[in-house]
């Protein structure tokens, strides 16, 4: 399921950079890639001429003829880089530093979890409930002798 999710995030980022990062809940990267893409489109495309077009295909013809090759390359580079980044981030590369956290982690994806959930909100894996008796450590016999007062 992780590879399918990664490919879907990458494919979504081809059509709209930042959307694949939003799918994997990487909000800061989603905003950065979407902002980069929309600012490049605003800067390079002749939007005022495209709005005056009678149909969508005529607008795309205007955009293709009025935009130079380097501008088209730059916009497509942003989309391709966003797709590659979203794919690698969805797979888990580079590994997250959530291993050093004190809280519980998901056995499927390894990301940090909330204590009160019965499923992983990242990969939707159902989690088995943990008994409170299992979490307690038994007291050593030596420690129990020291804590109990002795009577003469």
TrEMBL record:
Species in which this protein is naturally found: Natronorubrum tibetense GA33
UniProt keyword annotation of Transmembrane helix present: yes
Region (Disordered): 130-152
Listed transmembrane segments: 6-24, 31-51, 71-91
Ranges where the DUF7575 domain occurs: 102-128
Entry keywords, A to Z: Membrane, Transmembrane, Transmembrane helix
Compositional bias (Acidic residues): 130-146
Pfam families in the cross-refs: DUF7575
InterPro entries named among the record's database cross-references: DUF7575 (IPR055997)
Protein name per UniProt: DUF7575 domain-containing protein
Keyword Transmembrane: yes
